[in-house]
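Good morning C.,

I know you're traveling, so I'll keep this short. The sequence:
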Amino acid sequence: MFKTAFKMLLATFAVSSLLGVAHAADNQLVKVSSPHSVGQTVDNLVAAVENAGAKVFARIDHAKGGKSVDMDIPANEVVIFGNPQLGTPVIRDAPTAGLDLPIRVAVIETGDGTVIVYRAPAALAAEHGLPADHPSITKMTGALNKLTAKAAQ
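The tokens, ready to paste straight into the viewer:
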């Protein structure tokens, strides 16, 4: 009985691992290098978002949070922002997309400099059963490309 249960557990783990790998492939990350510090890049991103008419909901400083518990990490901030004109149709067509919206963009200090990172809207679409050419996904892709390019100028 124990051997059978153990074999079933191993099989379940193997299937879960395979599914996890497939799921990870759907989480395509876009990375953009910035010549600025994390703080300056985030300031630039926030300004670009606001100038585009979108709303910044939060700016999270993970390094500051780490320091509050006596742990140091390299500069790492996340900006959460959105535009209901783009996000609402996505959530209307795929309500689970509300888990990934509003958009989150991380700005991270790495050994190679500052990097802007976000999940590709096409990956978000795939995750929630929307076509990659969904009109709002296409617009989000263009907007993120422009906003992150401005942040890195």
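Safe travels,
E.
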